[in-house]
Amino acid sequence: MSAESKNPLLLAKLVALAVAMFMFAIFVLPPLYDLFCEITGIGGKTDGAYTAVAVEVDTSRDIEVQFVATKNATMPWDFYPIEERVIVHPGEAREVIFYAHNRTSSDMLGQAIPNVLPNNAADYFHKTECFCFNNQPLAAGESAELALVFIVDPDLPASVNTVTLSYTMFDITDRTLVQVSQVQ
Amino acid sequence: MAHGPATLADGWGKYISRWVFTTNHKDIGTLYLWFSFAMFIMGGAFAMIIRAELFQPGMQLIKPEFFNQMTTMHGLVMVFGAIMPAFVGLANWLIPMMIGAPDMALPRMNNLSFWILPFAFAILTSTLFMEGGGPNFGWTFYAPLSTTYAPDTVNYFIFGVHIMGASSIMGSINIIATVMNMRAPGMTYMKMPLFVWTWVITAFLLVAVMPVLAGAVTMMLMDINFGTSFFDAAGGGDPVLFQHIFWFFGHPEVYIIILPAFGVVSQIIPTFSRKPLFGYSSMVYATAAIAFLSFVVWAHHMFTVGMPIAGELYFMYATMLIAVPTGVKVFNWITTMYRGSLTFETPMLFSIAFVILFTFGGFTGMMLSIAAADMQYHDTYFVVAHFHYVMVAGAVFSGTAAVYYWLPKWCGRMYDETMGKVQFWIAFIGFNITFMPQHFLGLAGMPRRYADYGLQFADWNMVSSIGAFMYGGAQILFLFNVIRTIGWGKPTDDPQVWEGAEGLEWTVPTPAPYHTFATPPKVK
């Protein structure tokens, strides 16, 4: 085979490799990264809405759950937990309230993004109800009590006695394309 | 016999058309080399502005916003505009002559891959004159600094990166096709000169990772303009993902820059040692091993990002492993010189300086690879010093050596040896005065990329700036020497040029005719 007839095939293969790597970067790497974080619990990403299953409450263990609320750089709302820490038994459902107040003179849309520490607790912290599953519209001057119902899984590793749940409230007023399913 | 190229005697129209429409590998190599030198001067001018501002503490010459644009543009222009095109230019000139091919495999694509490059850099540089200024987020353009907080001109930057990526990919495909399909009869893979070997491995790295860079900037583009949230935590994305994707490209990229430089010194050192290269096959395998390892160590650039200890340990040990094949190369170069009949012409001086200073930069790299210690070094001038030892004393020194080494073959005239040696010593001393003190600054805690610094850093910064002006001056001398050689150098028609030079490119007449190896040579 002469070089001239071999070149087009090689060209096609190499272009295919380049296109495949481009697709890999956009369509494979981000989901792979999310999957990796989900499996390892790195990044403290929690799962979506949890359907409670009947489990025995483990009254022998006391788990301290701490709440942290922060606002992203430009977010002008007030946002804080009513209770900063609660003690729960694994398996028990507990409701806590976060307070949010839009103190600007315009209607806004907020989105809270959760994060759990330590990393190995992320998989054992279940939310049956959470304001973070949806975005939060607040009219000018309006305030709201945002509810969260959570269950700490009885399988929580024995080394974990304290779980910290942190929410960051983002201003997404200008973002209409955010899909809530992306955000948990 | 094929006709020769149009010259100025044929009129400006024909002369310009020759260069714009050329499919000749030597013409395109020349275009790449001149373009990269122009970018080198521009990126160097940015560096001079940075060092002038850092000459003294406080703000003297420019505003901090402009300083940020200068650091960003210096990095982008030097990496993508100066070093990479310089080695593509060398590849175009040399690979067909080294493997006995009449030209590159895909000459028209070769023309396209060069001619889109000036447009990419025109787009990128034009942002400096726009409202909001040019890119100011560092050459690593971490999100969200480069998305949420970027100037509006970031879209020009993204488009420019897309174009230069396309150019690199086309250039690499061409090199792979040339090496795989166009070798002269008898030129087996394990007979190829090492420069060809390092380039073909580099080309595979480029085809694999430049699309990843294109993907990263495409995701940025979508985050900025189309409401996606790849890197935006507000929409469920993750800025750390950007760093992973960037360095998945970025770490192979540093080997893309340095492997052809390895190839160059592997050609030059045997010539001036008058001995064959020691351990040829181990050089080939070491290059391949480095290329493979470059894909699995990326997160050592992000030790401080908040990684589990297992991740830090893995990336630390994998990074240290790279020292093994690199050490093989360094020992082979030294062993090649051992008991050789050494002479110290300018290319040899630059190559020996390359071996010494690159090894030094490699050792600081080992220090940085220690995850626990990196917490202290991260984002300080220690890192700046480290990568300038490998990028400048590595890639730029070897590029300079290559120009001096092959220039007589290209234009049939000898450069001025004294001027070359003077340039070498100014560059060597200037380089070390510039970057050696930056190690001390970094260890003392001076962070990189700031327009100002505390008073305790004043003395070494002044020393560093003086060295930078010296080093910059050496490049003007280099430009002068090259132009003088092409126009008025002592003519030579010795095909071998250098006494100890071996390889097919030294069997063609000097200066190299416009078309070489129209009939393939027989390689024994």
What composes the largest sheet of chain A? 5 strands, mixed
Number of domains of chain B: 1
What's the tally of helices of chain A?
1
- What is the succession of H and E elements of chain A? HEEEEEEEEE
Mean pLDDT of chain B: 95
**Strand arrangement, major sheet of chain B:** 1-2
Radius of gyration of chain B: 23 Å
Q: Any overview of this molecule?
A:
The complex is a heterodimer of chains A (184) and B (524). Chain A is α+β, with helices and mostly antiparallel strands. Chain A has 2 domains: 40 residues; 120 residues, Ctag/Cox11 (Ctag/Cox11 (Pfam 04442)). Chain A contains 1 helix and 9 strands, in the order H-E-E-E-E-E-E-E-E-E. In chain A, the strands form 2 sheets. In chain A, strands 3-1-9-5-7 form a 5-stranded mixed β-sheet, with no helix packed on it. In chain A, strands 2-4-8-6 form a 4-stranded antiparallel β-sheet, with no helix packed on it. With 524 residues, chain B is mainly alpha-helical. Chain B has one domain: Cytochrome c oxidase-like, subunit I domain (Cytochrome C Oxidase, Chain A, Up-down Bundle), CATH 1.20.210. Chain B contains 16 helices and 2 strands. The interface between A and B is large, with 41 and 39 residues.
